[in-house]
Amino acid sequence: MKEITIRVSRFDPAVDAEPHFEEYAVRVNEGARVLHALHAVHDEHDPTLAYRYCCGSGQCGSCAVRVDGKPGLACMEEARDGMTIEPLDLPVLKDLTVDMSPVIAKIARICPAPDAGLPSLEEIEAIKPLRDCIECLSCVSACPALQVTEFAGPTVLRQEMRLALDPRDSGDRITDAIEKGLFYCTTCKRCTEVCPKEIDVPGKAIEKLRELANRRGLTLPRHQEVARLVQETGRSVERTQPTFLEQVPEVIEPDGPVRGEVGFFVGCMFNGRVPQTALDAMEVMKRNGIRVIVPHDQVCCGSPLIRTGQTSYVADLKRKNIEAFARRGIKTVMTICAGCGATLKNDYETPFEVKDVTEILTEYGIELPAKLDVRATYHDPCHLLRGQGISEQPRVLLRQAVREFVEMPSQCCGAGGGVRSGVPEEAKALGAKRDEAVKATGADVVVTVCPFCEFHIADSTDAPVKNLTTILLEGYKKKDAERKGSA
């Protein structure tokens, strides 16, 4: 047995004006779960504590709560000293029990199709990734879109796709999905991160529903414009200035001895919209002894099309990009755009390894820059944090480059999944939440590793927003100036 202290959110609408925390010291066995700690509070301290539970084995979903801010099942999460337990981010009935009925009411039930046969083996395999949902609503509590829109949420859209795949259902699931906010999802994968069953709702449901909608001509007009641009030019952004690829040779040699070699996938934004950032990244690579090969025949990775369900042209993009790097014998391809990196890693089958620039630099080890005299915070791009599982590497590099680093809670900025272009009012509302978080840190600069996040946060906050490689280069330039001054 061990004793732990926990904080539990309490709220009785009959007597409380608002929720408050109570602290309890409880004795639990080694390996005890959060649910056991709640039982101990109930049995030893206060039998009026309200919380839901049933199976106690992760199968029913009834005991979902937030532990230290993250939604999950109380029966599966290990109890630890100092943890804070709160209800899901839904209307609270009492203490840790929430009103789930409005969401549950939106979850579609099967509309039996007359004379429908059983699903085929192929249809069953397609349904499998979606049928494990236990309707705990952890994903609903975590979804950023639900904070600012009338989006029905991941649980509801998952069910729409499951029924769309089932030949026994006769409902119009695409129209239903659109009415329930199909294009409001930013594909941030926060729902997958907190799902006890690890259901990939964005990849297996949202994007597939959008693909079905596209076949019926129901894609948002702005998304259709982007698709036309990709098909006509190979790029998802218009050329407004000399591009990165127009400014660099195919091989960029380092300043000193060669320590390594990578291919560089530049991406549409860094090629055409903000080429200077890509040029900054090349200077950082040169400074650290890494030869960079830049195939000039590379094209859009296809992410804007995949995320919005416009997939008919994606296979051609994949083929061109794979051939561009493979025929040059490139073994490692580096990206500096989180969206491109996630797409190449998760949506392609490549004969080469794909790594983010922060992975490359931390693996090789960098020349230490002079520290910039700024207080910096870091924004986790969704497609880097959850799309690629990269969190610590950018923080390691940033701490080496600035006087002070301060954390900021991770949340989608609102730019992804076609939302910035297709549902700008939602993107603006999520950007405002990022602005609040930035101001709370007191940071002088926001650093990130994604051009979409960089653009969107810059539109949402007064603080300057910079790519991590630009920050490193500024540190190197400061170091050069200091050396020159002391010479």
UniProtKB/TrEMBL annotation:
GO terms of molecular function: 2 iron, 2 sulfur cluster binding; 4 iron, 4 sulfur cluster binding; metal ion binding; oxidoreductase activity
Domain 2Fe-2S ferredoxin-type as annotated: residue spans: 2-91
UniProt-listed SUPFAM superfamilies: 2Fe-2S ferredoxin-like, alpha-helical ferredoxin
Superkingdom: Archaea
InterPro entries attached to this UniProt entry: 2Fe-2S_ferredoxin-like_sf, 2Fe-2S_ferredoxin-type, 2Fe2S_fd_BS, 4Fe4S_Fe-S-bd, 4Fe4S_Fe_S_CS, Beta-grasp_dom_sf, Cys_rich_dom, Helical_ferredxn
Gene3D superfamilies found in the cross-reference section: 3.10.20.30, Alpha-helical ferredoxin
Alphabetical list of Pfam families matching this protein: CCG (PF02754), Fer2_3 (PF13085), Fer4_8 (PF13183)
Protein name as it appears in the record: Succinate dehydrogenase/fumarate reductase iron-sulfur subunit
Source organism: Methanoculleus oceani
